[in-house]
Amino acid sequence: MVSGVSRGLSGFSEGGGGASMGRLMVSVSGLRGVVGDGLDPPTLVRYVAAYAGRLQRGASRPVVAVGTDTRPSRDMVLRIVAGTLQAAGCDVVDLGICPTPSVQLMMDKLGAAGAVVVTASHNPEEWNACKFYGSSGMLLTREEAERMWAVADSGRFDWVDWRRLGACVSDDGAAAAQIEAALSVADVGAVRKLSPLVVVDCVNGAGSVVTPAFLAELGCRPVLINADVDAGFPHTPEPVPENLGQLCRAVSERGADIGFAQDPDADRLAIVSERGEAIGEEYTLALSALRVLSKRKGTVVANLSTSRMVDDVAERFGCKVARSAVGEANVAQLMRRSGAVIGGEGNGGVMDPAVHLVRDSFVGMAHVLSLLAETGEPVSRLVGEIPSYVMLKKKMEISGDKARAVAAVADALGGSGLVDTQDGVKVTMGRSWVHVRPSGTEPVVRVMAEAPSREEAEALAARAIAVLEGSGS
């Protein structure tokens, strides 16, 4: 086992600040850390080599697509990733600065055996990471990731000699592939007729290279802020309301129909209404589901910590919601098993199987803009038609056994409602719920509660925290 590595195979925490500096975090989504303080060249080589070894078992000379977001360490990390793959006998296709969903789309075009995306998602600029995708086009499963990390820890890799080194070529087709895919699920005619004024904060991330052309092709009047890939992140990059003040002001000042915020690798999407109000990233999936279910009925998949707004939307069409453990890979696997028509996570991640089983901000924009055009309703009115809830997110430091502490919550609250133990414990009581799960990357237990009122949500969270405090942990 590598010293100082925090294992957490439930997926990266998309709503929190991550682990402390100096720790490398390894999960079902890949690995990430602070460059020079946990994430260094030898570490990158070890984990990428383990990934390459997995691909070598399926093809004698596998093709791997690689892309990156815009953080300052991108060139260094991307070159190490590409060189390591070549040294292991893989042919590399370098897509350059490229949204995460675009990399996955290029896998299909290239017939690639896998993909590596160099991105630390919503984390600040000092962080970087690698996300690893399998031949299925989805993030690795828990079992696949566990086997791969064991190889990384062993230090036993299969390097090839000079005659079998992989090649590395560049391909600039990712933007076109992304635009074509997102347009395929949009009502292009209706959006062009509406011609909405759309302000987008690309946070100077990978979305900057695709978003302007996509919105123009869709028939919008785009206004881009923070769309310079060399300028650095202009604010904390996670697209949550407290970071969207500039976007809210721009929407209000310009009288725009809607505002969108992407994260650095453009797989998450948040919305600002025509009133200049950040409505919260939980609405992205709810509004996308509203549009999809109005066209075709079927199962909706969301993780256990996603707002029950999606349940209310599904009930409107007589459809069901299936819940997975937290993590994009878990959502994708359940979507595939259940034949879902739409799915995703409450962090603004929309996944449409008509395109691919990857979070995609462009698909999210396509659905939300089409919904505006097809209904003729503004964002604020569409939001007002969905029952609202208050969601609280808390965490508690645990010095002892986190699993035992969570089990204590299940014992204490289990009799109050429906219990789901696939990822910690979630207890649903009518239109309220509380979800308690051990963090995979920090010595904490995360407590999330949602209810129709703040008082009810606070009471639920307090009950769970009281049990954790009394568990001896």
Quickly list its features.
473 residues; alpha/beta; Alpha-D-Glucose-1,6-Bisphosphate, Chain A, domain 3; TATA-Binding Protein; 3 domains; nine-stranded mixed β-sheet; five-stranded antiparallel β-sheet; 15 helices; 22 strands; 23% strand
Q: Name the quaternary structure.
A: single chain
CATH class of the largest domain: Alpha Beta
- CATH architecture descriptor name of the largest domain: 3-Layer(aba) Sandwich
Shape: globular
Mean of pLDDT: 91
List the uncertain runs.
1-22
Query: Gyration radius, to the nearest Å?
Result: 22 Å
**CATH fold-level topology of the largest domain:** Alpha-D-Glucose-1,6-Bisphosphate, Chain A, domain 3
State the secondary-structure class.
Answer: alpha/beta
Assign the CATH superfamily of the largest domain.
Answer: Alpha-D-Glucose-1,6-Bisphosphate, subunit A, domain 3
- In DSSP terms, counting alpha (H) and pi (I) runs of 4 or more, how many helices? 15
Number of strand elements: 22
What's the main sheet like? 9 strands, mixed
**Percentage of residues in strands:** 15-25%
Helical residues, percent: 25-40%
Through-space gap between termini: 25 Å
Q: What's the structural domain tally?
A: 3
Explain what the structure shows:
It contains 15 helices and 22 strands. With 473 residues, it is of the alpha/beta class. The protein has three domains: 5-172, Alpha-D-Glucose-1,6-Bisphosphate, subunit A, domain 3 (Alpha-D-Glucose-1,6-Bisphosphate, Chain A, domain 3); 177-384, Alpha-D-Glucose-1,6-Bisphosphate, subunit A, domain 3 (Alpha-D-Glucose-1,6-Bisphosphate, Chain A, domain 3), CATH 3.40.120.10; 390-470, TATA-Binding Protein, CATH 3.30.310.50. The strands form four sheets. Strands 1, 2, 3, 4, 5, 6, 7, 8 and 9 form a nine-stranded mixed β-sheet that branches. A hairpin with a 2-residue loop joins strand 20 (425-429) and strand 21. Helix 5 (174-183) packs parallel to helix 12 (361-375). The longest helix has 17 residues, at 454-470. The chain is globular.
